[in-house]
Amino acid sequence: MPRIYRIMREEGGKPKAGSRFGELGVRPGKDIPVHEGGLVQPGEGGMSVGPSLLDLPVMLVPKRLRHIVRGARGTNSHRCWRMGDGSYEAGRVAQGLRLRIAKDEIHGFVEPSARVSIEEYQRALTATREHWVAEED
């Protein structure tokens, strides 16, 4: 499983699952297109991630981490989370999920591995909740 990083809200010591900005999930129609019948598919978007805290957009990284990420200006109510230990390369992230690396080779998408309903995709993302670890050192 590739090592990925994401900035998200915290709830009960883990990322907060949901479909709003800063949650473990996607915003349907914004992060990934939803096709007729409520279906989503690989190669069209997904939950944004990066290969390290230093590669995440400074506008999202909490201000309290300015000592690590120069110019960090995100809200301090969010945290940096890490999941996985493998190389940052395309491949399986979890059951029903895969990592697709964008052309810039830094930005990535955790997307469905097959055409599924948006609800099934969101459930697969939520199922990863226990695997995320706070990473702010």
Briefly say what this structure is.
The chain has 1 helix and 10 strands; from the N terminus they run βββββββββαβ.
Note the main attributes of this structure.
single chain; 137 residues; mainly beta; four-stranded antiparallel sheet; 10 strands
Describe this structure in words.
There is one protein chain. With 137 residues, this protein is mainly beta. It has one domain. It is 7% helix and 28% strand. The chain has one helix at residues 118-126, and strands at 4-11, 14-15, 39-40, 47-49, 78-83, 91-94, 97-101, 108-112, 116-117, 133-134. The strands form 3 sheets. The chain has a 4-stranded antiparallel sheet with strand order 2-1-5-10, with no helix packed on it. A 4-stranded antiparallel sheet has the order 4-8-7-6. Strands 3-9 form a two-stranded antiparallel sheet. A hairpin with a 6-residue loop joins strand 7 and strand 8. The protein is globular, with a radius of gyration of 14 Å. It starts with a strand and ends with a strand.
